[in-house]
Design a protein that fits this description.
The complex is a heterodimer of chains A (about 250) and B (about 475). Chain A is an alpha/beta fold and about 250 residues long. Chain A is about 35% helix and about 25% strand. Chain A has a single domain, classed as P-loop containing nucleotide triphosphate hydrolases (Rossmann fold, 3-Layer(aba) Sandwich), CATH 3.40.50.300. In chain A, the strands form two sheets. In chain A, strands 6-7-8-3-9-10 form a six-stranded mixed sheet, with helices on both faces. In chain A, strands 2-1-4-5 form a four-stranded antiparallel sheet. In chain A, a hairpin with a 2-residue loop joins strand 1 and strand 2. The chains are: A alpha/beta (about 250), B alpha/beta (about 475).
Chain lengths: ~250, ~475
């Protein structure tokens, strides 16, 4: 039995006075790949942002435990230091800050150590190759003028350096063409160690073909209504969410 | 200077007040007697005394400006026009009185001089207390003199150029005020074809509460010459108002080039009402680099008069207004001749209710056939109680010109902060990073030491550590 990494109990979250998560329970084990599926507006992104600690998402009830510790009231950056990472659906643009500069700053803060230039350059080269990215990205300003696909790859580039314990991929497949999706998915697979857990939020099955989730949960109306193995994704694809909604 | 040689500065040094002795001061307010007293104390030739008196009459007739910043709380009659420390002008730091020398040492001036400056002038309140230039430059005919000495040593040049053909006492009230009670400053002459490889620097320090500083800088760059002049300014914080109304006149002859850099960090009780202007002849170049961080209120609009064909001007600036500050800055680019070009890159930042504005003028005259100009001004507000405005005025009288213009104002978004914090940065670090990115195009344009200094001042402004 693998130990629990993330445990969410009866989570209620409001965004701009709208009640989105309504008593959500979720457990993710260490090393587990867990996919959350659900229709638009069911609260999938809200779940990711709540785990990350976005202050715009107000927790009105319930708790989030990470490695057994209550992190419900922890600041965003403290969660990042604990090893929680969110790959954003639409990453922000930061003009004037290069990808290199940003990742170095971030790594040094999260690990609390100064990574040597040499090791940084080496790791950067390898990861860029893995993501099929040109080295000119290093000197470009973070996400500024990047295409949707380039932004997603840059998220994974950051993830590779931060080596988080929990990786949340919020619709990593949106804005990616089939080839890019394959590159990104395979990179994630390669970067994932046995200790890392992944939470994938998606509408589509394609990414799941690559990342092979251990557990699939269905999120509807702010709660997890069903969990199962990867065959659940196929059933959902064939029968739609109504199948779950109708409680069959 | 290489990167690893840059000093770490403790910024509390800006705010240390010295307990120095003053041997003479005019007392508060402004009158004919005060002006005569200043002139007498300086033992000036009669033409300068007359010039001052005429300027005073102009000053008394002119109205206060009613645009820009609110000057209603500035009571010029409570400002001490002239205050002289008991220190004679020296050419060696050892001879400068200890308390004053220590202040400049804390500010890193003597050290910077040893490491990478061709000449240094240091003004303490109303008087220059140190002025020195490398002998090799003197041998090439470069003149670098404090302005009071220059009046006596080079009367013909000073009489010809001092506020007679560039900035005039009649230009505005504070130009007239400056002309009447100016004291200190620097005169530079660079002979034809001489390129001064390392910068010259002037540092202006105000120490006495309730006083004014009115230094005059006059630089003449003869044909084909080059010089980089750096100004630094600071003062400790007082509850009473201080006034700085300096004047800079630059003459750039054919094919000559002046880089004029300023890092201004006046204390936040200072009114900074400064006038700077360059007249640029054929193929001459003026490059203004300006960082405005301090002062309570600033009105500063360096002007470039592109008079000769092919003359060029660049203006690169960062303005940072925090709580209680209203900084109104910008540039005036006046194209009067064919094929002249100008480029403005201005960034302003405001936080904690500060107001930081870009107010600029781009004028292309009828003769400026083929002129090129670009103006890019951007404002960044760090919260929703601060203000940032851009007011670029463009006035074009010739059709055959190439103009680019971009102005925008934005606010740091909470989503940007969240994104950066999700990568481990604290909220303060996240804000600092966004601001650093915002000024990056400026930092890139600056010599490395100034980029570092600018980033440090920005960091301190963000932390609210500057008094």
């Amino acid at each position: 039995m693998r130990e629990t990494l993330l445990e969410i109990r009866d989570l209620h979250v409001e965004v701009e006075d709208k009640h989105i998560l309504k008593g959500l329970d979720l457990t993710i084990k260490r090393g587990e790949v867990h996919a959350i599926m659900g229709p638009n507006g069911s609260g999938k992104s809200t779940l990711c942002h709540s785990i990350m600690g976005n202050p715009r998402y107000k927790v009105t009830g319930g708790e989030i435990f990470f490695e057994g510790k209550d992190i419900t009231n922890l600041k965003v950056n403290e969660r990042a230091k604990k090893g929680i990472f969110l790959s954003f659906q639409s990453p922000e643009e930061i003009p004037g800050i290069t990808v290199d500069n940003f990742i170095r700053t971030s790594v040094n803060i999260v690990t609390g150590q100064n990574m040597s230039m040499l090791q940084f350059a080496k790791e950067m080269k390898n990861t860029l190759e893995l993501l099929d990215m040109d080295s000119e990205y290093r000197t470009r300003y973070l996400n500024v003028g990047f295409s949707g696909g380039e932004k997603k790859k840059t998220e994974i580039l950051q993830m590779a350096f931060l080596k988080p314990k929990l990786i949340m991929l919020d619709e990593i497949d949106s804005g990616l063409d089939i080839d890019a999706l394959k590159v990104v998915a395979e990179a994630v697979k390669k970067l994932k160690t046995e200790d890392m857990s992944i939470l994938i939020v998606t509408h589509y099955n394609r990414i799941l073909d690559y990342l092979e989730p251990d557990v699939i949960s269905v999120l509807m109306d702010g709660r997890i209504v069903k969990s199962g193995d990867k065959d659940l994704a196929k059933i959902l694809e064939e029968k739609g969410y109504d199948f779950v909604r109708n409680g069959v | 200077m290489k990167k690893d040689e840059i000093r770490e500065i403790d910024f509390s040094i800006y705010d240390i007040r010295d307990d120095v002795k003053y041997e003479f001061q005019t007392g508060k307010g402004l009158s004919k007697e005060v002006v005569l007293e200043i002139s007498e104390q300086k033992n000036e030739p009669s033409w300068m005394r007359e010039f001052r008196l005429e300027a005073l009459a102009i000053y008394q007739k002119m109205p206060m400006p009613t645009w820009g910043v609110d000057l209603s709380e500035l009571d010029i009659d409570s400002i001490i026009a002239y205050i002289r420390p008991s220190a004679k002008m020296q050419r060696s730091w050892e001879e400068v009185p200890e308390e004053i020398r220590r202040t400049f040492e804390r500010l890193g001036i003597p050290e910077a001089e040893r490491k990478g400056l061709a000449g240094v002038g240091a003004q303490y309140d109303s008087e220059v207390i140190y002025h020195n230039i490398k002998e090799s430059l003197t041998k090439q005919g470069v003149i670098f003199e404090d302005m009071d000495t220059a009046v006596k040593k080079y009367p013909d040049i000073i009489k010809e150029y001092f506020m007679t053909k560039n900035v005039l006492p009649t230009d505005h009230k504070f130009a007239a005020l400056h002309a009447a009670i100016w004291s200190g400053g620097t005169f530079v002459y660079v002979p034809q074809g001489v390129k001064v490889e390392v910068p010259l620097q002037a540092y202006f320090r105000m120490n006495a509460p309730g006083s004014g500083q009115f230094e005059h800088t006059l630089i003449i760059a003869d044909k084909g010459s080059e010089v980089h002049f750096i100004e630094g300014c600071s003062a400790p914080q007082y509850s009473v108002s201080n006034l700085h109304a300096g004047c800079v006149e630059l003459f750039i002859n054919e094919g000559a080039r002046i880089i004029y850099s300023t890092i201004e960090n006046w204390s936040k009780n200072t009114y900074n009402l400064n006038t700077k202007r360059a007249i640029v002849e054929k193929d001459g170049i003026i490059e203004w680099i300006s960082g405005s961080f301090g002062s309570k209120k600033t009105m500063l609009y360096p002007a470039s008069i592109l008079k000769g064909e092919g003359a060029k001007a660049e203006y690169t600036s960062v303005t940072f207004a925090a709580k209680g500050q209203h900084l109104d800055t910008g540039s005036k680019m006046i194209h009067l001749a064919p094929n002249t070009s100008s480029k403005v890159l201005a960034k302003s930042i405001s936080k904690d209710g500060g107001i930081s504005s870009y107010r600029g003028l781009l004028k292309i005259g009828t003769n400026a056939e083929g002129a090129k100009a670009s103006v890019q001004c951007e404002g960044l507000m760090l919260d929703d109680i601060s203000r940032s405005d851009t007011m670029p005025v463009i006035d074009i009288e010739n059709d055959n010109v190439d103009i680019g213009h971009e102005a925008k104002v934005g606010r740091i978004s909470e989503e940007q902060i969240f994104y950066l914090m999700s990568r481990g940065l604290s909220e303060d670090d996240a804000r600092a990073m966004i601001v650093r990115g915002f000024v990056e195009p400026i930092a890139k344009a600056l010599p490395l030491e100034y980029a570092v200094e600018m980033n440090r001042l920005i960091k301190l402004e963000l932390e609210g550590a500057i008094g």
